Prior knowledge:
Elements: E1 8-11, E2 17-20, E3 23-26, H1 33-44, E4 50-51, H2 52-59, H3 68-84, E5 95-98, E6 101-104, E7 110-112, H4 113-124, H5 131-144, H6 157-183, H7 187-200, H8 205-217, H9 221-239, H10 245-257, H11 265-272, E8 282-284, H12 286-303, E9 308-315, H13 324-328, H14 331-341, E10 347-352, E11 355-360, H15 365-382, E12 389-396
Parallel strand pairs: 1-7, 8-10
Antiparallel strand pairs: 1-2, 2-3, 4-6, 5-6, 9-11, 9-12, 10-11
Amino acid sequence: MNEEDTKLYINMLGECSLTYKGNSIDDKTIRSKKFWILLEYLIAFRNKDISQSELIDLIYPEGKSENPANALKTLTHRIRNVLDELNYMDSRDMIIQTRGTYAWNLNMDCVIDVEEFENLCNKGNSPWVSDDEKLECYLRAIDLYKGDFLHKSALEPWAVEFNVYYHTLYGNIVHKCIELLKERNKHEQIIEICQKALAIDAFDEVLYYHLILGLIDTKKPQLALKEYQKMSTMFYKEFGVTPSKELRKLYRDIIKSNKKVETDLSVIKETLNEKSEITGAFYCEYEIFKDFYQLEVRAAGRTGETVYLGLLTLTNTDGEMPSLKMLNGHIDKIQACIQKTLRKGDVFAKYSVSQFIMMLPLTTFEDGEMAIKRIIKKFHKQNPHSPLTIIYSLQSLEMVIQ
């Protein structure tokens, strides 16, 4: 028999489970919330004896049980019966009860994932460890981190501090690991680590940067573009912010890299043709809009044609920026109105979470006003009960002399 086969394995990162020789109990098969809160609490605070009154307050915080001491004994008895199904050892020796206190037996031969994870992080962060050893420790720790600490109990007051601690530790080593992998040009590993980490923390902009950069470095511009657009939309809707300057630069790099050597001009023409069935104005990312703007400025200086720059801003009835919830319910609708109202030759982009900017090649200021007022009229006609107000500004493009 392998020595490791005698160990009891306890997982607390992600789901909670206990496993011994193929026998397992986990929070998927046993649904009782009180069962897991008590068992998890005993394991989490395994280094101390816990009083009966503390556990009663934990299980019955609002004092709903008529006989809480007896209810605690009953729940403990049930947990012991389930632990006995593991065939590890007598469950009375796993949860020790003495003189009104309860404790998890520290003398058991256990492997607890949070202890392994923390030890690997500490070793990897040690200044006397080589970079290769650091990387090995970080990769093993990342592999152990299946999810945040006891995710089903994460909002319990006692679990919050644990959750924050391990989550922060995980985020720090992920960033350090990525830097070490970058030095070794391990782009595929960086992509894999970022994807896993973003499933745990979907709002880490630095991870998106490294994921998109990794996809560019591995010649996957379409996937990089998809990730950028997903991230950009999510950050707009959740926080009302635009991607960082570094990420916007990456976006330009994606556009530049999405090409291959091609000598047949007819093939290039096919790729240039717009395949979308969408009619109306051309919508693009703001970074691309800036290129259109520079092009129009140059053309206007040469030909003397007049082009107007318009800005639509969504506000509430008090003239203030609406809540993100309110904006998320209407921003796509105003975008559709702009696209369908303006002409095919017009270009527009989202400037901020509550604003759209557009270029209008028109002969007069009055024509520009009429075009914008048609957009506003269409929006209010289609959304008569919208709490939003649309204000606009309009200026002609001016040639900038460098």
